[in-house]
Write a structure and sequence with these properties.
alpha/beta; Rossmann fold; 36% helix; binds adenosine-5'-triphosphate; 22% strand; VC0802-like; nine-stranded mixed beta sheet; 2 domains; six-stranded mixed beta sheet; elongated; binds magnesium ion
Length: 394
């Protein structure tokens, strides 16, 4: 007999959010629906704090929907389950069908849960009953309570019994949209996409700003960043992405300011522009991929100098991570292979030979006086609008 396959989704942390729980569950449901919508028509229902996703059109691809659901933040565990009637004989047959689909296996364990406590027998009795049936059907199989190759999960809930193998961990975190929107300063490098992922995982909506410096940086470099945005969209949903041309700003700083302060002066410009864009778009924080001491512009003193122009919170989720740890994450989220493509970045144009690692705000401000009226407004301290060009890219 053919059993219907559904996706069982167990939300994680949002269960602990008291009065906000319902609101966050609605956000998770909506994110989930959007993530699987390209693969057919699905219905997402909630039953005792578990989401059950089922296909409602013949061409709906539940297997692909399952693999996409794994990218949605706010899910602690998920499985692709067969549904059957809540009756012991049915559960026995269905367990065998799931194992037959899996193929060869050596060791197994049965784990049962009753969300529906009216169902008899209880889990303690159901597990050995199903276990014996598996041993009778597959005489070479061995029960292993500690490290089984397949864990047969049985859940008795409304409206049926759900049987699956090897429930998987989701990404955890909070559903994207539980927090406000933040603007990620997205370079083409390894770090900033990981930073975007980490903050989206805490429920932030993400938009991205990429700085370019044509003709010193190429269209290819920009395309690479667009590809990174596309990958991030697998986790974050639709992302607003804009590119900002900094050529005039870079050339002016290079011409008028001390070489050793170039990078820090440029970064203050980047933060000012990013905040301005955020303010216009209702975004409330900046995210960067900075990690303490990684390069000259990421020392405590340098970060103090960049933060001096910030009126919004700046989130730096990688601040305490080593490069090796960041690379590991970048590989997991599949941005690494794109990030290592060898295109230039505006931060690598005009880099000083000996950048100052311990800049002081006073000296930086003095250097900026030279930029007044050319790229900086002396009154407001903002970057003059004619100093840069912004375009919406996706
Ligand atoms: P990444 O690997 O993310 O490029 P990095 O180690 O190269 O980081 P920096 O070049 O100093 O370090 O940049 C630090 C942070 O500043 C980046 O993580 C990113 O958030 C931001 N940034 C740098 N270059 C750009 C750019 N061209 N556009 C937007 N943001 C940038
Ligand atoms: Mg970079």
């Amino acid at each position: 007999m053919a059993y219907k396959k559904v996706i069982l989704i167990k939300p994680g942390e949002i269960a602990l959010k008291g009065l906000n729980k319902k609101k966050f569950e609605a956000i998770l449901k909506s994110n989930l629906k959007k993530a699987i919508a390209p693969y057919g028509e699905f219905k997402v229902e909630e039953s005792q704090s578990v989401f059950i996703v089922q296909a409602i059109s013949a061409e709906a691809d539940i297997e692909t929907a399952y693999s996409k659901a794994k990218n949605v933040f706010g899910i602690s565990k998920l499985s692709l389950a067969y549904v059957c009637e809540k009756a012991v004989e049915e559960i026995k047959n269905c367990s065998i069908a799931v194992l037959q689909e899996y193929g060869r296996f050596k060791t197994f364990k049965v784990e049962a849960k009753r969300a529906d406590k009216t169902f008899k027998p209880d889990s303690m009795t159901l597990c050995p009953t199903i276990g014996d049936h598996v041993l009778n059907t597959f005489p070479k199989a061995v029960a292993d309570m500690h490290n089984p190759e397949v864990r047969i999960g049985i859940e008795i809930r409304e409206p049926g019994a759900y049987i699956y193998l090897n429930e998987e961990f989701g990404l955890g975190g909070m559903p994207v949209g539980c927090c406000q929107t933040a603007n990620v300063l997205l370079s083409g490098g390894i770090d900033s996409p990981v930073a975007a992922f980490m903050m989206a995982k805490r429920g932030m909506n993400i938009s991205c700003t990429h700085f370019t410096s044509p003709p010193y940086t190429s269209e290819l470099a920009k395309d690479k960043v667009k590809k990174l945005v596309k990958i991030l969209e697998n986790y974050c949903g639709k992302i607003k992405f804009r590119c900002v041309e900094l050529t005039k700003i870079q050339e002016t700083i290079k011409k008028l300011c001390p070489e050793e302060l170039f990078t820090i002066l440029l970064r203050r410009m980047m933060f000012r522009i990013a905040q301005n864009i955020s303010k216009l778009n209702g975004e409330s924080a900046i995210i960067t991929g900075e990690s303490l001491g990684q390069v000259a512009s990421q020392t405590m003193e340098a970060i103090t100098c960049t933060d001096e122009v910030c009126f919004m919170p700046v989130f730096r989720p990688l601040i305490g991570m080593d490069k090796t740890e960041i690379i590991e994450r970048a590989k997991k989220i599949e941005t690494f292979d794109i990030s290592i493509l060898p295109y230039e970045d505006c931060c690598t144009v005009f880099v000083p030979k000996h950048p100052k690692t311990n800049p002081e705000v006073k000296a930086i401000k003095r250097a900026e006086e030279k930029l007044y009226g050319i790229i900086l407004d002396a009154e407001t301290g903002e970057v003059l609008p004619e100093a840069y060009k912004m375009e919406e890219c996706l």
